[in-house]
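FORM 7B - TANDEM STRUCTURE REPORT

SECTION 1: FIRST PROTEIN
SEQUENCE AND TOKENS:
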Amino acid sequence: MAARDDNMAHASSPSVPICTEQSSNSTAPHRVILQRPSSAGSRPASVSSSLSSSSTRGPRPNQEICVGEELRIAVDIALEKFRLNPEQKELEFPSSFTATERAYVHRLTDDMGLKSKSRGKGSNRFLTVFKKEDKKAANSSARFQLTHNSRQQIHNLIQRFPLTSKERHELLPRTERITSTEGDLDFVLPHISLN
């Protein structure tokens, strides 16, 4: 049955090598690990690193991280929910994660603009993810450099097609927009009804 599962896994996507790793329990299902075609050897990085003398270390900064697809999906969903929930300030991952799995979470959180920290030693090592509290970036405007040619083109467009007053109003920050009808009534004579 295990050989049949391996053949089916290889047949389903021939361009991506798939290797399976079976736990010591014969009734446990195979763990499928996807690899990129360019990786060397028939074993994924997580399996081959467990055979080396430094099995407790995760992958190096530029090294490819090979984790199970189930873990990838679960971590992606958990981090996306965490990022979208403004009330949740930190997210803790279990101590059962391997060094490679923690490295995957560290790299993913960095790409998502979050902070992560591993604490503890040995089997009690766990990972916590935090939202970055960057007050300076929240209050500042985004800035980017334009070339002289780009600035000249923008200037020409604004000269040829000037902004209308409605467009100017829409470009104001929300706090500065006046949408109510209250305020100064210019060019209107004060009038009091005598009813």
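SECTION 2: SECOND PROTEIN
SEQUENCE AND TOKENS:
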Amino acid sequence: MGGIVLLKGKNGDAEAEELLQELFRLLAPLALGEAVAQLVERDDRQRDRRAGAQLLAVKI
């Protein structure tokens, strides 16, 4: 997944903008990986809170 980060301001420095965008490109996947790992870790904490077979067998 890619994205575009726009940095706007008075007297923008092109080199500083490129440096910040490169830093963002390097760190964004790491942050996303941590968030996904935390969600997966919490996924199995309450296994008893799911629909029983009798609820899943009901036709609508």
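SECTION 3: OBSERVATIONS ON SECOND PROTEIN
The chain is about 55% helix and 0% strand.
The helical segments are 14-43, 53-56.

SECTION 4: SIGNATURE
Preparer initials: ____
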